[in-house]
Design brief:
24% of the residues lie in helices and 11% in strands. By secondary structure, the chain is of the alpha/beta class. It has a five-stranded parallel β-sheet. Strands 6-10-9-7-8 form a five-stranded parallel β-sheet, with helices on one face. α5 crosses α8. The protein is globular and about 50 Å long.
């Protein structure tokens, strides 16, 4: 199955897929549900990035993974079963929705695609208010696979998906320090996208990631937008890279050395 779905294809398959709306307000996350209820693609269920796709923040980062059994329960509440064809979307070119795409992939659920270009591309009818699917049962997977820990970074290429100004340490709106993990290479999520917010084609993405070895690890601020780079690498023909979920939010909370400027 492809990693992406166009709005044209989605329009013809609304009755066949389980839609997940992962729009999230970075400045005021409490507004996220209101944004969803004010208008969403028909049949889409609201997925809360902070509560459905992450455990509470702690010393290990701002968006640690939930317990795998908790995630299975969440999937059941969302009406998702192992046989569901899932489509995820947001309104920031997939930067947040890619987290759920990766989490499903990580537990072996590969029947999941991301709406290319996001909510802005949708030209059909919209639905307001909440949508509550019939609950389902999702078997508890044994674990999340492809998760890299802080202790596993040494000797491997680390990709940092954050915007260049955060990587360089020019600004840092949320974490204790500014800069990047020493040695990390910056491939910001913007490099995965065309000017209209859709992903580059496979050949162009292969050029972006041509120098990356098979054991590369992707990271970001808190293990969310890193999944956007992971998705791009899969489109480019790479195997799924490991994701450092703690990312810079964990690294900086442990008061470890950071680098600033444009160089790794």
């Amino acid at each position: 199955m492809s990693t992406l779905i166009s709005h044209e294809e989605l329009a013809g398959r609304l009755e066949e897929v389980r839609l997940c709306d992962i729009r999230w307000d970075l400045i005021d996350p409490s507004r996220s549900r209101d944004i969803y209820e004010s208008g969403h693609i028909p049949g889409a269920v609201f997925v809360d990035l902070d509560h459905d796709l992450a455990a509470p923040p702690d010393i290990d980062g701002r968006h640690p993974l939930p317990d795998v059994s908790t995630f299975a329960s969440t999937l059941g509440r969302l009406g998702i079963t192992p046989d569901s064809d899932v489509v995820v979307y947001d309104d920031v070119a997939g930067r947040y929705a890619a987290r759920m795409w990766w989490m499903l992939w990580s537990i072996g659920h590969h029947r999941v695609r991301l709406l290319d270009g996001g909510y802005q591309t949708w030209l059909g009818d919209i639905e307001t208010g909440p949508f509550t699917p019939a609950p389902a049962s999702y078997p508890v997977p044994d674990r999340f696979r492809g998760v890299a820990t802080r202790g596993e970074l040494s000797g491997r290429v680390l990709i940092d998906a954050r915007a260049g100004e955060r990587y360089r340490g020019e600004v840092e709106p949320v974490d204790p320090k500014a800069g990047h993990i020493p040695g990390a290479i910056n491939i910001s999520t913007s490099r995965n996208l065309r000017s209209d917010g859709r992903f580059l084609d496979a050949a162009d993405l292969a050029g972006v990631y041509s120098a990356m070895p098979p054991d590369a690890i992707v990271s970001c601020g808190s293990g969310v937008t890193a999944c956007h780079d992971a998705l791009a690498m899969v489109i480019a023909g790479h195997a799924m890279p490991d994701v450092y979920i703690g990312s810079f939010s964990e690294w900086s909370r442990h008061d470890l050395p950071v680098a600033v400027g444009p160089d790794p």
